[in-house]
Design goal:
Length: about 475
């Protein structure tokens, strides 16, 4: 009781010292430098194999471990380390969502003297990125296209390879097997589906069987099969949507495109399920161009009508020559942030929210989502913050050396005073467990108007760093 009275007095002092709108204690979001462990795979001087080097990367403000690892790989500083990519190679784009990393490099392929050198470069880049925490799969694109290795799609890397020679032997064996009658090979592909909120594309990893010349048809079959994560992703097409088998053609300009013919009824199906039509073009082009080698884009017809443009979130876009390219939509790849909300019994249940890929890894945005509480359709979970707390009570999040310092308002502190021990524990560890799922965060400090307080309501000490409590998570 004495601690609660003392805390209430402190809350009143803080409110008096920092009235509404005061700037004291506000710090917004800041993610400073932090260390990330990586294994970099460089090319040996003999040019036929790779060598690995363990490295602690310093991830500067505004960068990611994936970008830092690629920069270190493309521009080595050690005299004995040779980049696996040709000189002058630059990182054009890097996408990360749900543990899937897609890398697009601008590279002069004429410097690669053989398919074996291409396989060596792929192995080095994929092995390096797969060594990073939170990376489960790597899709490598060169000059905004996929490249073939031994005439087959190279697919998505999901495991580090023992070495370039082993990987090259695997590609050769696959090519020989697929060249035989009835021969098939397994590849991992990234499929893209619309998010349930109709705003984003969500990538999904799937293993598919391919044989020579049928990869486009297999991809469309998988799109029609629908997403595995139906709680966040929406079905795009249904059985019978295809009017004809996909075909690959060369345009007069020398570009390779995949022609997708869909029935006119697809438009009505999208309207019925509330999926914006632009997501049809986006999901198909992203999926096809992220897997099929040497493909520049797709064309789509609905019945007899070609898709020549799209209204993307209110803005009209026209596709030149009706060719839909991956880069038309790669900025709409979304991500999933996972919150921990109260299940009503003191356990923390995971709740997934779809947002932009950047916001999905933003401590500030994730905490704002947590404070906002359950949305319609999220059943069986409850608000963890007291009634009256709003996102305006989150003054800032600062991440340094693996510790996230979360700054709340005096009003937040005052509203927490009546919490019973279970409610206080649930609130504190909802914050901690949610934040510690993000790569830079290992521990959390909670502050009020920038000042350290002993506790929110008398149960949990806040005088030091708080580590996650896995025992409270309901999996």
């Amino acid at each position: 009781m004495i601690r609660k009275i003392t805390a209430l007095i402190l809350a009143l002092i803080l409110i008096a010292a920092f009235p509404a709108g005061a700037e004291a204690g506000q710090m917004g979001e800041y993610v400073g430098e932090y260390a990330a462990e990586a294994t970099l795979w460089f090319r040996r001087s003999d040019g036929t194999e790779l060598t690995s080097v363990d490295r602690t990367l310093v991830v500067a403000e505004g960068k990611t471990p994936e970008r830092c690892a690629l920069e270190a790989l493309l521009h080595p500083t050690g005299e004995d380390w040779i980049s696996p990519a040709p000189q002058g190679t630059q990182l054009t784009r890097l996408e990360k969502s749900g543990g899937i990393v897609t890398v697009d490099l601008a590279v002069d392929l004429s410097y690669l003297e053989s398919q074996q050198e291409l396989a060596l470069m792929r192995t080095a880049i994929c092995n390096t990125l797969l060594s990073l925490e939170g990376v489960d799969a790597v899709n490598l694109m060169l000059n905004s296209r996929k490249e073939a290795v031994c005439g087959l799609p190279d697919g998505v890397a999901t495991e580090k390879d023992a070495g370039a020679a082993v990987e090259w032997a695997r590609f050769q064996a696959d090519a020989e097997r697929c060249g035989q009658e009835g021969g098939v090979s397994q590849r991992w592909a990234v499929l893209y589906f619309p998010s349930q909120n109709g705003l984003w594309l969500l990538p999904e990893l799937r293993e598919i069987s391919i044989s020579e010349g049928d990869s486009a048809a297999r991809l469309m079959e998988e799109i029609i099969a629908g997403p595995a994560r139906e709680e966040t992703s929406a079905r795009l097409l249904t059985v019978g949507a295809l009017a004809a088998e996909p075909t690959i053609e060369i345009t007069p300009a020398g570009e390779q495109i995949v022609r997708i013919a869909l029935n006119a009824s697809v438009r009505d199906s999208l309207l019925l399920q509330g999926t914006p039509e632009w997501l049809l073009s986006a999901a198909i082009s992203m999926t096809v161009c992220s897997f099929l080698p040497e493909v520049d884009g797709v064309t789509i017809t609905l019945g007899e009508e070609p898709v020549f443009g799209a209204n993307i979130r209110g803005a009209n876009r026209i596709f030149e020559d009706n060719i839909i390219r991956r880069q038309d939509f790669n900025m709409y790849v979304g991500g999933i942030c996972q919150l921990r909300l109260d299940d009503g019994g003191g356990n923390l249940t995971p709740v997934e929210r779809v947002t932009s890929a950047a916001r999905a890894e933003s401590p500030w945005h994730v905490l704002q989502q947590l404070i906002a509480g359950p949305t319609s359709g999220e059943n069986g979970v409850f608000q963890v913050t007291p009634a009256g707390v709003s996102t305006q009570d989150l003054l800032g999040v600062r991440v340094e050396n693996g510790t996230a310092t979360v700054n709340f308002s005096a009003n937040f502190y005052r509203l927490c005073q009546p919490l019973n021990p279970r409610q206080e524990r649930t609130l504190v560890y909802a914050i901690v467990n949610t934040l510690c799922q993000l790569p830079p965060v290992k521990a959390v400090c909670i502050r009020i108007e920038g000042a350290e307080v002993e506790t929110l309501a008398g149960e949990i000490s806040l005088t030091g760093e708080l580590l996650p409590s896995p025992g409270m998570n309901a999996f």
